[in-house]
Amino acid sequence: MTKLHLPTPASGGIPEQAAGGVLHIDLDALASNWRTLRDHAGGAETAAVVKANAYGTGIEKAVPALSKAGCRTFFVAHLSEAIRARTVAPDATVYVLNGLFSGTGPTYAQFDLRPVLGSIEEIEEWAGFCRAQGEKLNAAIHVDTGMNRLGLTVAQGLTLKDRGELKDFETALLMSHFVSAEESDNPLNRQQIEAFEAIRASLPGIPASLPNSSGIFLRDKPQYALVRPGYALYGGNPTPDQDNPMRPVVGLEARIVQLRWVEADDTVGYNGRWLASAKRRIATISVGYADGYPRAASARGRSGDDLLAGTALVAGQRCSFAGNVSMDLITIDVTDVPEGRVKRGDTVTLIGGELTVDEVGRRAGTIGYEILTGLGSRYARTYSGGQC
């Protein structure tokens, strides 16, 4: 009998035999996607956004794979993520998108990290810290051209040239963020480009960055020094109205823990929201919303109805969810799979093959971004490739 040696929290992941679900992460596909984006970037430096634990793939695995492919600049959301990226990419440039938290200047300096400054208050604090250090440290400045989320207003951006604080640090990058680049004909794209151009013209000589994953594929994309892809690196489609040019990076499988038959008019799952219209065979898998699979993918109605709900590949065949997604379990209608082809202990595919992360997101009433970044800590993780 095989004895499982369960890891301590410090030693790494969960063994596949002990996990309800397994994430398969293809680091060669990740590197290939970065090269594809680089080739579409018109000569701009191609950075990589590795926030949210590299979109669920793992900063400690994704950053070295991207570095080997040639990536030299990384963006994260939080300072803690930046320190993790620095640990595995000691020579890279690392920016922190969510701004400068008060009093964190010494940590930025210690790990040679760059804050993305998005307010006058942050600019003043960073300038003051640099003066106290007696050193002009690097930072980016973020100007909001339409998102109304983070960043200086356009009016503030146009007056930056008059602010003395800019003499106290190195403005290594001027950046903004597209609102709707995935919608190639959205007039907001042109409006944002024009607003950003006006600010850029008032601050000549500073490298600029605007395109995200989808922005790289815009017909009239601006040619700036650096592009910042995120979602597309991990296999998401940056051109939703066209075929996906990216390779899939993440696959998700879950283990069947039980099979049962239910009779006509039986319900399945919490609140009895799914009704068997005839005798049906139900497989229960050991994954649920606590693992990051959205409850909104629940199937509610009668079996056989055309429900926009979650689906899985069971023995290569599409099978619809049955009932509500629970915290730790999902039930699937596998009646149409021959009995000899599905049994307890088999795995089903929740992401992979024809089940793309974009489709999984649509079926859960959300987007692939949320699916990837919500992938939980209870999965076993397997990695392939990465030796670029």
Automatic annotation (TrEMBL):
Q: Which reaction does it catalyse?
A: L-alanine = D-alanine
The coenzyme or cofactor needed here is: pyridoxal 5'-phosphate
Database matches in Pfam families: Ala_racemase_C, Ala_racemase_N
* Biological role: Catalyzes the interconversion of L-alanine and D-alanine. May also act on other amino acids.
Concerning InterPro entries, the annotation shows: Ala_racemase (IPR000821), Ala_racemase/Decarboxylase_C (IPR009006), Ala_racemase_C (IPR011079), Ala_racemase_N (IPR001608), PLP-binding_barrel (IPR029066)
* Record family assignment: Belongs to the alanine racemase family.
| Active site, per annotation | K51 (proton acceptor), Y270 (proton acceptor)
* UniProt protein name: Alanine racemase
